[in-house]
Amino acid sequence: MQGFEFFCPTKIVCGEHALDKLPRELEARGVAHPLVMTDAGLVKLGVAARLTNVLDAAGVAYDVFDQIPPDSSMEVVGQVARLYAERGCDGFVAIGGGSVIDTTKGAAASLACKGVDFATLQGSEILTRDLPPFIAVPTTAGTGSEVTLVAVVADTEKHAKLSFTSYKLVPHAAILDPALTASLPPKLTATTGMDALTHAIEAYTSIQKNPVSDAFAVKAIELIGENLPVACRDGANVDARANLALGSLLAGAAFSNAMVGIVHALGHSLGGLCHIPHGQAMMMLLPHCVRYNVENAIHVGLYGELLAHLAPARASALPASAPAAERDRAFCEHLFSLNESYHGQYGVPLRLSEMGVERPQLEAVAKQARYDGAALYNETEITLEVAWEILEAAF
């Protein structure tokens, strides 16, 4: 066995009524006046109020910032850091999806570095100082940002998504309460769930994979495969919602150590240049990227190993003597069938053209994807031709 490292320092509080334990987690970290981070949509739906009601009941003073856009941006990171200092806050609580949590990571990092421009921390392990106390409360089961060392923040002027990677960015605690994801509509449940599935699959096929990340990735795939269809059909199913949230967290922990690859390289570029929501980009690209890899004999056998965990019935239908290549193809076919199913039932877009992307934009997307940090962990080089081929297939 080759040597490896695995790091997941986040305390995980999971299950029904887990949110009620928030005041205790704040007290344990010496936080008396947190800044609650969320977005306007969650305020309107009353989801953010579930958290602030808990703080009110416990007599915890707090301020709220609720103007986080769907794609976190450098401008908003700066606004949050200034508000935190002005109001005398001493910790963060982020309730929301990946954008909310990533914005919080950016603001916390800026404060940790005493106002240093967050953009200068782009790259791997540039950040050297500890963040203020930071508790993440995810409301989608997709990004896994509540346990990851990654923050992706948009530079709106350059039309690019900047990637920041540091173990200092990992939240100190994550609270997974299924009640917070119950209101997520089927369409968003499907796209965020497929985002989490992408994390697990790419972690399992990354050149930096290890036995511990593999264990997390495989369990994540099992939980997502079994519970995503149920959560889409019945959003109030507490067990399905809790298992899906746990699957997303496990996938996040897996890729936070093993990293991701070609799907994310292309997806980050699509988000920055074409403003495609991240989960939607992952869902559209995943089957096409896997098909490219299968057809070009990349990751031979690894996809087939995952088939039984994602689709037990499909795996058992294959003869025991089925070669690795056949199992790989079956896994790829199942991903396409999942997308078709969610498209048919919930109207999830499957083509870039459906999202307003124009064919002339693909060249710029392909060029930018080649230099995305995720490309470093792909088994093969992401050439302009490869990126173009996959984008054309998904167009």
Primary descriptors:
alpha/beta; globular; 10% strand; six-stranded parallel beta sheet; three-stranded mixed beta sheet; 9 strands; 395 residues
Summarize, please:
This protein has helices spanning about 20-30, 40-45, 45-60, 75-85, 100-110, 185-205, 210-235, 240-260, 260-275, 280-295, 300-310, 310-315, 325-345, 360-370, 385-395, and strands spanning about 10-15, 35, 65, 90-95, 125, 135-140, 150-155, 160-165, 175. With about 400 residues, the chain is an alpha/beta fold.
Written description of the protein model:
- Helices cover 52% and strands 10% of the residues.
- It contains 15 helices and 9 strands.
- The strands form 2 sheets. Strands 1-9-6-4-2-3 form a 6-stranded parallel beta sheet, with helices on both faces.
- A hairpin with a 4-residue loop joins strand 7 (150-155) and strand 8 (160-165).
- Helix 14 packs across helix 15.
- The protein is globular.
- The mean pLDDT is 94.
Task: Draw up the topology in text.
Layout: E1 11-14, H1 22-28, E2 35-37, H2 40-45, H3 47-58, E3 63-65, H4 74-86, E4 92-96, H5 98-112, E5 123-124, E6 134-138, E7 150-155, E8 160-165, E9 173-176, H6 186-205, H7 211-233, H8 238-258, H9 262-274, H10 278-295, H11 302-310, H12 312-317, H13 324-346, H14 362-369, H15 384-394
Parallel strand pairs: 1-9, 2-3, 2-4, 4-6, 5-8, 6-9
Antiparallel strand pairs: 7-8
